[in-house]
Amino acid sequence: MLKSFEENQLNDSKVLTTEDAHGKSKRHSDTLYAILFLGPSLLLLSVFVFYPMLKTLYMSFFLTNNFGQTTVFVGLNNYISILKSGSFLSSLASTFVYVIGVMVLTIVMGLALAVFANQKLRGIQFFRTIFSSTMGVSVSVSAIFFLFVFNPTSGLLNQMAGLLHLPQLNWMTDPHLAMITVIVSTVWMNLGFTFLVLFGALQAVPQSLYDAANIEGASKPYQLFKITIPMISPSLFFVGIVTLIGAFKSFGLIDLMTAGGPNNATNLLVYRIYQDAFLNGNYSQASTESIILTIIIAIMTIIQFKVLEKRVNY
Fold first, then answer.
1. What PANTHER family would the database entry show (predicted)?
2. Helix axis angle, 283-308 to 51-59, nearest 10°
């Protein structure tokens, strides 16, 4: 009896040992697979994302020479001097005007186009193609197109104004109008993507909701604000986040259309960073501005999540 009990215990311990060995082998196998699949991505992210970010943060605490080599440790003095700089604060204000203008106009116009394209009208497929076509236009082509449109002497707008005996405006040389031109150009570039996202969301809204609203006699504006917008709120939230971050990072159109002018009216933060680093050779100042811009984008994104996510209906 006692011998049988001991044999059973010995067999149980052998089973447990085998299971432990099998579990350890499986964990090692999982770890190996994780390294194989994630390793290349982590390596690329480390080289092209994490290292440049840490290097930029490191350089923001130093003075640098024209070759970008750190020379003197200055701590937070770079941040203090930049935050007291009038030209930096002017660029910051211009950036906020640009970002708010681009974000609001892109979402409103994208939603309007999506609602229109969602109607069952004859030939609506043609308009859907036109509305989404800006996705296939490069930044350089878009800049050339709008330079022809807004050119003060030979631009399309001023020629039409001349034919209608209206005053001709200096779109590219007036500081206030120059900001409008880059905002309009950026909104036009963003419309294709925004339209497609919102139009796809509208396609998923059940028609029965509108049928019920029509039976109750609800007006079209009421249906828009009480049915359409709440039903596509996740897509609107996504578009808002993407547009906000994209507007903060805008560079191509600014560089090709205004180069930050006139009188630094369109010298947004990203373009200012480019000028300080690659034209003026002041890498420490450019690094400091980059860190400040990163913090601003992070704060604005967090505010969007905290404020707008509560209104999203998942």
1. ABC TRANSPORTER PERMEASE PROTEIN, INNER MEMBRANE ABC TRANSPORTER PERMEASE PROTEIN YCJO
2. 120
70 DSSP β-pair partners: 64
Among candidate residues 287, 248, 255, 294, the one with its CA nearest the CA of residue 271: 255
Q: From residue 279, how far is each of 216, 252, 258, 264, 284 by CA, in Å?
A: 64, 16, 16, 15, 13
With a threshold of 0.70, does the pTM exceed it? yes
Helix (H) or strand (E) run with residue 70 in it: strand 70-73
Contacts of 148 (CB under 8 A, 6+ apart): 154, 155, 156
Question: pLDDT digit string (tens) for 256-302?
Answer: 998 888 888 899 999 999 999 989 889 999 999 999 999 999 999 89
Question: Tell me: the pLDDT tens digits for 147-160?
Answer: 888 888 778 888 88
- The string over 219-250, giving b where at least 16 C-beta atoms fall within 10 Å of a residue's C-beta and e elsewhere, is eeeebeeebbeebbbebbbebbbbbbebbbeb
Q: Where on the phi/psi map is residue 118: left (φ > 0), alpha (ψ -120 to 50), or beta?
A: alpha
Question: b/e for 198-215, b at 16 or more Cβ within 10 A?
Answer: bbebbeeeeeeeeeebee
Q: Which residues of 69-94 are buried (b: 16+ CB within 10 A; e: fewer)?
A: ebeeebeeebbeebeeeeebeebbeb
Is 202:184 a contact under the CB 8 Å cutoff?
A: no
- Whether the CA torsion 282, 288, 294, 296 is positive or negative: it is negative
DSSP state, 174?
A: S
CA 197 – CA 236 distance, rounded (Å): 9
In the chain, the amino acid numbered 280 is N
d(CA 189, CA 132): 10
Q: What gap in Å lies between CA 265 and CA 259, rounded to an integer? A: 10
Cis amide linkage into residue 230, ω under 30° from 0: no
